[in-house]
Amino acid sequence: MRLTRGERLASRLNYLILGFIALLALLPFLHVVAQSFSSHQAITSGRVTLWPVDFSFEAYVKVLREHAFVNAFKVSLLRTVIGTLLNVVITCMLAYPLSKAYIKGRSAIMFLIVFTMLFNGGMIPTFLVVKATGLLNSFWVYIIPGAVSAFNVIIMRNFFQGVPPELEESAKIDGSSNIGTLVRIVVPLSMPVIATITLFHAVGHWNAFFDTVLYVTDRNLFPLQVYLRELIMFNQSNISNNNGYSANIDSTLLALESLKAAALIASTVPILLVYPFLQKHFVKGIMLGSVKG
Amino acid sequence: MDSDLAAADRQPENHPLRTEKWERFQSLKKYWDLYLIMLPGLAYFIIFKYVPMGGIVVAFQDFSAFAGIRGSEWVGLTHFKNMFTDSEFYTVFKNTLLISLYKLIWGFPGPIILALMLNEVRHMLYKRGVQTLVYLPHFLSWVIIGGILINVLSPATGIVNQFLGMLGLEPIFFLGSQEWFRTVLVVSDIWKEAGWGAIIYLAALASIDPQIYEAAVVDGAGKWKQLLHVTLPSLIGTIVILFVLRLGSVLDVGFEQIFVLYNPLVYNVADVIETYVYRTGITQGQFSFTTAVGLFKSVISLILVVLANKAARKLGQDSLW
Known about the structure:
The complex is a heterodimer. Chain A is mainly α. Helices cover 70% and strands 0% of the residues of chain A. Chain B is mostly helical. Chain B is globular.
C-alpha cells in the first residue's frame, strides 16, 4: 500500500511519540536504579540522573544485611506462596461444581457470589468480623480474609464450562470418581486459566499492604510493602545506625537516599523476574474476564 | 444400588414437585463429594462477606466494642443525620467526586489513544517492546510507585524540581501542595494504568474485519480517512460500554494510591470516603459513625453499578453480568 507524504510523516511521528511514552514508563525506574548504586552525597547534591555516580554496591549490601528487610522479604514470600496456593485450590473447588448443570442450587450460589462484587459490608464491619475471628496480629490474617475472589471464581467457572463433557464422561466410565476426574482430567486441561489466576493472586499478595495496616501491629509480621512504606514515607530505618555511618549525624536520623532506592529496587526485582509470564497470562486473563457467562 | 434404581422407577413421572425433590436427592447422593468441596469457598463468602453485611446494623447503634452488637444501644438514624450536617463529610464527599471526575476526564481517553497509536505500528518487534514497557507499571504496588514519586518529586533533591530549577522556576512541593496534589494523583494514575487499559481496546481493534479496510482503500480512503471512518466507528461500542461501566464505579477513586501519597498538608483536597472511614473509624474508634459513612458509599455504588449495567445492556452487546 502506498502512503502519501503526509501519512509517512504521521507514521514516523507515531513511532517517535510511542517511543517517548515507553521511555516515560521506564525512566523513573532507571533514575531510582542509578541512585541505588550511587553515594548519598551524590544524590543529595543532585548529580545523579540516569547513571550512577560514585558507583558502589554498598546500599544493596546494607539493605540485604538489615534484619527487618530480610524478615519482611520472608513474610512477603511466605504469604505469596501459601496464600496463592490456598486461593487457587479453594477457587477450583468452588468453581468446578458450579460449572456443572447437575449440581442443584448452583445459580442461587452464583448469585450470592456475584452479589458480593456489587455490595459489601464495608471496612468497619469487615474489620469487626476479622477481629472476632481472632485473626488480628497473626500471619493467617494475610491468607484467610482474602481467600477467594468472586471475580476469579467466575472466570474459572466459565473456563470449566468450556471443557468438553465427553472427556469427563469417558473418565467416569473408566471408573474415575468425581474428584478424580477433576484432578486428573479437568485441572490439566485448564492450566491456562489456572496459571492466570495464580498470577493474579500472587501479584496481589506480593503488592498487598493495606491488610497489614488494618489488622497487624506486630512488626515481625510486616511484609515488604509495609517495610518500604515506613522506610520511604516515614523515613524510619535503623540500617545506617549500626554500619559505621554514625559519624554522619544526618544519616543516623534519616534513611540514606541510596538505601531507600536500593530497598525499592530489591522489592521490585521479584515482580520483574516473573514479568514475562505476567504479561502473557494477564493479557489472556483480561480476555477471559471479558467473556461473560 | 439396585433398590435405588427400583425406587427411581417407581417415581410417578408426571408429578413435578415430587420428581424435582427426587432429582435433588439423586444429585446429592451421586455427587456428594462435589457438594462437599464447595464448602470452604462458601464458608468464606458467608463469614467474610455476608456476616459483615449483617454487621452494617452497627450504623444504627452506638456501638461499643465492650458491649458488642447485642449489648450496644440503638440510635436509629442519628449517625446519618450527623453525617449530613458534618462539614468534614461534605469535603470528603466532594473530594471523592472531584478526584474521580478528574481521573475520568483526563484518564479515560489515554488508553484509547494509546491503543490507536499502537494499532498503526507495523513493526511488530517495536510494538511488542513498547507494550512491554507501558504495561509494566500496572504490576507494581502503589507503595513502590509512591516511593518513586516521593523520590522524583522531592522539593530539595527530586529530579523534577532540578529540571524546573534549570528552567529558572521555583521548586514545587508537589505532594504537600493543595494546588498540585490532585494533579499528581491523576498523572500518576495515568502513568500506572494507561498502558494496561489499552489492552482491551487493542483486542477490539484486532477483531475488526480487514476486509473493511480493503474496501475503504478501494474507495480511495487514505490512512486518515480509514481511522476516521472505519477504526473509530468500530471502536465506539467498546468505548461507550467501558465509559458507562466506569461511571458505575465513580465512587471507587483509587484508595490505595491516595492512602500512600496523602499527608495532613493536603487532607483538605485529598481525603476521600475510604481514607476518612479508615482514619476516623479504625484509628479513632468511631465505629458506628464510619459504618454509616461506608454504608452510604456502598448503597450509592450499588445503585450506580446496577444503573450503569442496565444502560450498557440497553446500548448493546455487553454487560457486567
